[in-house]
Amino acid sequence: MNQRALLLVNRQARRGQEALTQAITHLQGWGLDLLEESTADPQQLPDLIRSYRDRVDLVIVGGGDGTMNAVTEGLVDTQLPLGILPLGTANDLARTLCIPTDLAQACQIIAEGRVQRIDLGWVNGKYFFNVASLGLSVQITQQMTKEVKRRWGVFAYLTTALRVVRQSRPFRAEIRCRGESIPVKTVQIAVGNGRYYGGGMTVVEDAAIDDNRLDLYSLEIQNWWQIIPLLPAMRGGQHIKSSKVRALAGKEFEVHTRRPRPINTDGEITTYTPATFRVVPKALSVLVPNSPPPTS
Fold first, then answer.
1. Angle between helices 16-29 and 103-112 (to 10 degrees)
2. pLDDT tens readout for residues 250-269
3. Mean pLDDT of 156-183
4. Residue 162: which of 218, 227, 220, 217 has the closest Cα?
5. For residue range 174-217, what is the model confidence (pLDDT) as tens digits?
6. In the 8-state DSSP scheme, what is residue 240?
7. DSSP labels, the chain
8. Distance from C-alpha of 287 to C-alpha of 293, rounded to nearest angstrom
9. Cα–Cα distance measured from residue 3 to residue 89, given in angstroms and rounded to the nearest whole number
């Protein structure tokens, strides 16, 4: 008996509209029975998934990290497995899970891959796959328009980040972890659940999305140019070895600031400080490759 799948595609994603027909052809070719739905309002996606709870075997979502983030509550509530079509700009969740951006290969993984349980991050009632952060990343999110992302792709992150960094000013915060209070003066605090964020930067070198922990780093530079030497290290998660970076690991953190500061979860601003961050172990199922690709 063919598996029935709910197909949700963000037509506004960088490759959304052009990839939809192609994806349907591939998925049907693998024997999947598709029920396609779309909505212009991402906030409706969890209820849409809940309404199909007893009618499908899995949910296939096409889009970027923001679209993936938008479906988490519906997936957690129904416990339906997630199949990923990476159609966005950064596709950091797909990168973490070794899912290629090639559409035919991604469809094959949905049809033939194995199910893996993964953790979710949680902050003030909002789930996240990759990273929740405050400071620089919020300013980057605020300045990066859909047009810029569509035109420049992943390079949009780099060009916007360089512009934002030059305008950055440190702010004071208090990090609480395991009963300890740590005052910091920082330009960014990032709390990672997955491995990749921001178009391929690594949270820390050994981060994994199923390790039952969160990885926090605080970027404590005084002048914008001090971040330049750190950029190459951030690609591989080596930045935490710098004296300008504070790194912590744990299952729960609190971050307090003098005034409420916006928090970015998987590229969308969703909440504000004061914030409590937690890991939710093995929260949902995702279809991943049967064996990871060899590392080059």
1. 40
2. 999 999 999 999 999 998 88
3. 81
4. 227
5. 999 999 999 999 999 999 999 988 777 888 888 899 999 999 99
6. G
7. -PPEEEEEE-TTSTTHHHHHHHHHHHHHHTT-EEEEE--S-GGGHHHHHHHTTTT-SEEEEEE-HHHHHHTHHHHHHH---EEEEE-SSS-HHHHHTT--S-HHHHHHHHHH-EEEEEEEEEETTEEESSEEEEEHHHHHHHH--HHHHHHHTTHHHHHHHHHHHHH---EEEEEEETTEEEEEEESEEEEESSSEETTTEESSTT--TTSS-EEEEEE--SSGGGGGGGHHHHHHTGGGGSTTEEEEEESEEEEEESS--EEEETTEEEEESSEEEEEEEEEEEEEE-SSPPPP-
8. 15
9. 29
Q: Which residue has the tokens 């390790």?
A: 211
- Residue type at 29? G
